[in-house]
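Hi everyone, sorry if this is the wrong subforum. Our group has a chain we'd like a structural model of before ordering constructs, and none of us has done structure prediction before. Sequence below.
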Amino acid sequence: MTANEKAKAKTEQATGAAKEAAGRAVGNERLTVEGRAERKQGDARQAKEKIKDVGKH
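Answer:
Right subforum, don't worry. Here is the predicted structure as tokens:
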């Protein structure tokens, strides 16, 4: 996994989790859903990079 892609994945996961928590705290369903989607996008990016790493070995 390249360092740049790994950083992007972690950033998306953290930002998404924060948005999701903030949305729940204030009762804003749109923000909660947006955060969940962003977190899942980070998870997908991380999984894609891990698959690339496995293919190299």
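For your construct planning: Helices lie at 3-26, 29-56. The chain has a mean pLDDT of 92.
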